[in-house]
Design a protein that fits this description.
Structural class: mainly alpha
Number of helices: 7
Distance between the termini: 22 Å
Strand order of the largest sheet: 1-2
Helix content: 40-55%
CATH class: Alpha Beta
Number of domains: 1
Order of helices and strands: HEHEHHEHEHH
CATH architecture: 3-Layer(aba) Sandwich
Radius of gyration: 17 Å
Length: 188
């Protein structure tokens, strides 16, 4: 967001994340986005939580690993809704910040974004690599400065399950949602 604003790009944030579980985690992440959007004077669109539809689409993919078929389904669902909103509201380009995370597969993300954009003749998915030129490092700097909530798992119930299983196997405490923030002395 900061890089786009500084570059003079006119943008709107479309927040559609029915995958995030549980609801209080969803609200926390959404509110962090709203807080920063308001600070940057960026319009913010709060889309439907649509959790039941996400679980319906995830049926049969519960045991898929991170970056697997479940993630593709999740990205497809979210990008399809984003592309529809863009088309209905006169936007001709959309992109995502998902690629900032080193835990995400850029090829997978961009494939889903382009597939959604291809449904509409005038819509383009911008495949910019936000990790380039220190983008990931800058994300952590901003997160610490703003004392953002630290997201310790991707968001879905299966990611939470798998992350906590890994943590238990590695003698680390389970994730306590909603308590870890950047800027705290233990996280800085």
């Amino acid at each position: 967001m900061e890089a786009m604003v500084e570059s003079g790009i006119d943008l709107t944030i479309f927040f559609y994340n029915p995958n995030i579980h549980p609801r209080d985690e969803y609200e926390l992440r959404k509110n962090e986005n709203i807080r920063f959007a308001e600070k940057m004077n960026i319009p913010f669109i709060d889309a439907d939580y649509d959790r039941d539809n996400w679980f319906k689409r995830a049926r049969g993919l519960e045991m898929e690993p991170e970056r697997g078929k479940r993630c593709t389904m999740c990205f497809d669902m979210r990008f399809e809704r984003t592309a529809l909103f863009a088309q209905e509201n006169g936007f001709n380009v959309f992109t995502s910040s998902l690629g900032l995370s080193r835990w995400k597969d850029m090829v997978q993300i961009n494939g889903c974004g382009m597939r959604a954009a291809n449904r509409y003749p005038v819509l383009v998915y911008w495949t910019y690599n936000w990790r380039k030129h220190g983008g990931s490092s800058r994300m952590y700097e901003i997160s610490k400065r703003e004392e953002f909530y630290k997201q310790e798992y991707c968001g879905c119930v299966y990611s939470l399950r798998d992350t906590n299983l890994w943590r238990l196997k590695n003698n680390r405490p389970k994730i306590d949602k909603g308590t870890a923030f950047y800027g705290n002395s233990q996280l800085s």
